[in-house]
Specification:
The protein is built from 3 helices and 17 strands. By secondary structure, the chain is mainly beta. Keywords: Membrane, Signal, Transmembrane, Transmembrane helix.
Amino acid sequence: MKTARTYLALLAATVAAFLLAAGAPARAEPADDGNRAWSVRPGTADGKPDRRTHYTLQGDLGKKVQEMVLITNSSKVKASFLVYGTDAFNTDTGAFDLLPAATKPTGIGSWMKFASPAVEIEAGATVAVPFIIDVPAGATPGDHAGGVVVSLAANGTDVKLDTRVAVRVYLRIAGLLRPTLEAQKVQASYAGVSNPIGKGGVDVTYTVVNTGNIRLASHAKINVTSALFGTRLGGEAKKELTELLPGQRVTYTAHVDGVFPAGPIDANVILEPYADPDQPVGQQIATAKTSVTIWAVPWLITLLIVAVLVGLAVLIGMRFGRPRPGKGKGGGGAPKKPTPPTPPTPSKAAETPKRATRPVRDMPNVARPGKQEKKPATTVVEAAK
C-alpha cells in the first residue's frame, strides 16, 4: 500500500513538472541590434593567443612563412567576415596606415594567402585562421610592412558599424641591410624683435626621408649656431619622431626661441635613428646632419652703425677736401725753400789766333743807323805787330 502511494506521488510530481515546463515560455534568442564588433590579433600555431600585438617575422627569398590570425566576433549575433592582406605606408603626419580596400597591393599584401577569404563566426566566439606569406625569389632585402585586414562581409543587414580592423605585419628579408635616414629640404627663417639688443626666433622646416631598406624611428635635435664662430645660439629639445618605413617621408616643423641676431647663422637638423628593439639591425646606425645658413640681422644696430660710418665719411671728406695752404686762392703759407742755383758748366777755352783783329773804328764814312749812304762802308783792319 505504501509502495502504491509512493508511485502515485512520483507520477503526480512528473505530471506537474511537465505541465510547468509546457507552460513556461521558450528561451528567446538575443535580438539583432544591427551593430557588429570584432577584434584581430596574432595567434600561435595551435590557435591560441600570445603576447604579440603585431607580427615581426623573418623570411628568406623563395621561402614561405606560416602564421595564424585570431578573429573574435563580439557582436550579439553570428556574422561573416572577409580576411585579406594589404600593404602599409606612412601618412603625411607619419602615422602607420594601410591601403584602401579598393587599392590592390603590390608588396607584402600580395604575398599573403589565407585558408579561406571569408569566415563565419558565432556571437562571442573566436576562430583561428591560418595564412602563409609566400616570399618571391626576386624580393628586395630589408623590411616589408603590411597588415592582415578583417572587414565585415555584406549580408544584407542594416549594419551601423562597418570598420576595418587589422593587425600589423613586419617581414624582414635576409640580405644587405641599409639603415639610413636623411633630413632633406631644410628651410629656416629668422624673426627678430624691435629691441636693438633683444633676441628673436628661428622657424625650421625639414623633411625626414627613409633612404634605406629598414624601418627606423629617430630622435631629432635642432641647434642654431653662429656661421662665423660656431657658437651655439639656441636649440630645440630632443624630439621623438615616428617610425618611418623604407622609402617613406614626413615633413616636420620646429621653432627655436631666444636666438641673438648674430648675422649669418646655421640652422642644424640632427637625426639619431634607431631600430625596433624586437627586430635589431645588428650594426651601428649613423647620425644624419643637415644645415642651412640664414641671416639674422639686428637692423637697428646696423642702421646706427651705418649712420656713424656716414658721419665719419663726411668729417673725413671735410678735413681732407679743403685746399692746402699756398695752393689755392688766399694761400699765405710759408714760402717754398729756394733752390740753390746750378753752377755754370765751364766751357772749353778758345784758341788764341795768331793774329788778333782790332775793333772797328768809327770812321766818318761809316753808315749810321737809319741813314742811307751812297758810298759803301769801308772797314780798316790793322794787323797787330
